[in-house]
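Supplementary Text 2. Reproducibility record for the structural model of the 72-residue chain.

All settings were left at their defaults, and a single model was retained for analysis rather than an ensemble. We include the record here because the model underlies the residue-level annotations in Supplementary Table 4.
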Amino acid sequence: VQPHGQNLDGLFGLLANVAWTSLGPVAVDDLERVRLNARAEGLHLQVTSVDKFPRMTDYVAPQGVRIADADR
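Retained model, structure tokens:
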């Protein structure tokens, strides 16, 4: 596929929201179950966001770029 060779219109609406947590991505419908399981194992589950995409800096650190606040 050539760059810009695919029509992705409407794709964003097909993506599900995900709870991005300290233990990894969790389906929103599974969040309370995962939270209870984590608590039972003595783990703290922190939800950093609920969105289609995570904060970029949780997964990559671009070279040559300064990021003062990854939440903005």
